[in-house]
Amino acid sequence: MGDSRFSEYFLMKAEDAGEYVREKIDFFRKDEELFCEEIGDGNVNYVFRVRSGDDARSIIVKQAGKATRIDKNWFLSTDRGRIETDILRIQDSLAPGLVPRVYLYDPAMCAILMEDMVGYTMMRTALMEHRRFPLFAEHISTFLVNSLLLTSDVAMEHKKKKERVKSFVNPELCEISEQLVYTEPYNNEKDRNLVFAPNEDFVRENIYENKPLHLAVAKLKFDFMNNAQCLIHGDLHTGSIFINDTHTFVFDPEFAFYGPAGYDVGNVIANLLFAWCNAHATMEDGADRDAQKQWLESAVADVIDLFILKYHNAFREHVDDSMAKVEGFEDWYLSALLESTAGVTGLEINRRVVGMAQVKDITTIPDGSKRVAAERALITAANRYILEAPRFRTGADFLENFLNAANVYMGETPCR
After folding, report:
1. Region for residue 137 given its phi and psi (left: phi exceeds 0; alpha: psi -120 to 50; beta: otherwise)
2. Class in CATH terms, 121-409
3. Does the predicted model carry a pTM greater than 0.85?
4. Pick the CATH number of 14-115 from 1.10.150.120, 3.90.1150.10, 3.90.76.10, 3.30.200.20
């Protein structure tokens, strides 16, 4: 392959992807016509679907660009592709079937060849279509417990865990989170926040001038930077989940590194709340809207409560360290994890409402007054998650905080 045009890195286009797959992997018949399209909608990678003419087979090629797609002067290490590949393989060993299969990683082209999740929909898209997934909480709680607890010091051999920490240092992607999640939403220091104009005064008062909030966020930021607790996904929102009625896939773990477990759990909760706001603001009043909101409320509570249940089961099955078995440690460790989860839930909400990387669930609400109300409810709930983090201990606690804020700002008592 020394004379292959794919032996040295270049940024592929759709017309390159079919030839690339044929060269790298025996996946398609040699005589069949291939169709290729670029389907990526993220900010940092290029994603190509290559499929056979009869649609019988398809594969995904995901290539790491050297610069972000939102700012060509913002450069990133392409090693994130290697990290993502290794993470997916580890996650598949811990939570089998809940991540897509990786066929090949090519370090020259910084590209991953992976399973195409045919028959699945990106969860954010599906929730904005107001679909419901009764097995989601069961699936995602299993993924969270297995991928987080089982990669931590309480369950891993300590030297092996430290080697993992070194292998998954991810400074460029961590820097994005440190800026876009933990810094800019609170001070707009790079002047790239996107504040909905009718909420400018509300944001200034409740975020930019909220000194107790800034202190709490600062503490969370340095926990994120220093607490190498477990191998986290690092960007686990509903755009990183593909789903159907019977199954769930978690993908896109390029932000993964050893960080605080609550980061992943909190991201999931916050994004379910965005979907609730979208349903409330865009569906017609009636039984369908009530059912959608009620399912999302149950999902929020169930993700937390099932996580707690499975955490205790996994702790007792997998933890061997004698000090971790000291009476009271199991509950203390969980309390700290839930406190972190609450804080991150608030961080994810605020950064998606006022920061530069926003979510369509909120930005596409067509009625300006309803968007104003949704954003104010979200910010109010977010600040309580952050400032009062120790009090969130059950699914009901997480849900009640949000519903109280929704009741105040969105003009209707929620369904639950």
Report:
1. alpha
2. alpha beta
3. yes
4. 3.30.200.20
